[in-house]
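Deliverable D4.2, example record:
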Amino acid sequence: MNDRLAFLRAIRANPDDDTTRLVFADWLDEHDDPLGEFIRVQIELEPIRYRIDNPRAVELHAREDEMLRVHRDTWLGKAKKVGTDWPEFGPQFRRGLPNHASLSLDTFLKQGKALFAACPTLREVSVFGIANRCAELAKCPHLAKLETLEIADWPTQKDAKTLAESPHIMKISHFKLWLGGGEPEDQHFLNELAQRATADRPRDIELVQLLNRRESFWTAVGILNRLGMAKVRISRPFAQLFPLDGNLGYNMRAGRLPDGRAALVAGSFGDWVLVIFHKTGNVAKATTQKSSVDVSKGFEALEKAVTNWMDKKLRLKPELIWVKEFFRHGLGVDLGNDRQALADPRPDPPDQYTHVSEWRARGGKARQWYELRNFVIFWFNNYHADWRGWIHSS
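Output generated by the structure prediction step:
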């Protein structure tokens, strides 16, 4: 075994220990390998990765982006094209090395061998598009190489039983399972796992509550009561704080009022809306007033009037603020999942989906939002924003 592979295997065996990673980084420096610097960059960045108000985080992100642009394909080798059906995914680097990947079932089955050979430190895979196909997944030997499996879909009852009986499945320590709208279909695989659980396996089950819905909440509570808190926990990506960065465009501005309160304001030909937030990011107050600009005057007149309202009457200072999901007077922020698909765990597409392939891709689309921390700002359109708080498309 060469020294490089020995380091990677040691890191894989103790993934939470940065000491070995830093020793490996020193070794890489001695061999003029830029991966050593990259490991240090990501280790320092990880605890502040989403603190976009932190100047050091901004600096580290810039260096991370540049190094990935130049070296990613070299570092991934034969795995560089894995996940190209969803280019945002494939292997993702954390603390300097590939840690997880999000893949369609077809990609996992066909390219899993190349993925694990090229990325010995890979620990977690999210697989989507598995409904009615768990017999194929259950036979896949790559499952045994995982520490964490996320099922980004809703297996049918038959699927769940087939997958739970896989000889590879109980070698996995951690599972991530999705909760949608609170339907019984959410629980098929969880029930099968519960029946086969031992004192040691699985060690942890994370329920990812994708929708802020009462039914989903009570489903999660019922599962916790049945299985106990020791093995099951709930994550709620929609409950995170979303960043809004100053002048958003489209006659929207985020910032602070003279008294220090965070606010989001927006103006249209119909209404001008002011939303004020608590320090927690929840809405404290939302007001609306009729626009003083007639549509016949055009968008330039509207923009001028709204800007004047923001600057002179409200005296809103543009700056980064953090808010939770809300919707008031036509203005809102949302996690941005395909909510209709996520609330419907049926394995077959409803009428609005033209192709089965589009329906199967719903899990990948949802994970694109919550894993990459993208979100939607509603204001007479859906404006897609990223984890930096910048609108990048609509």
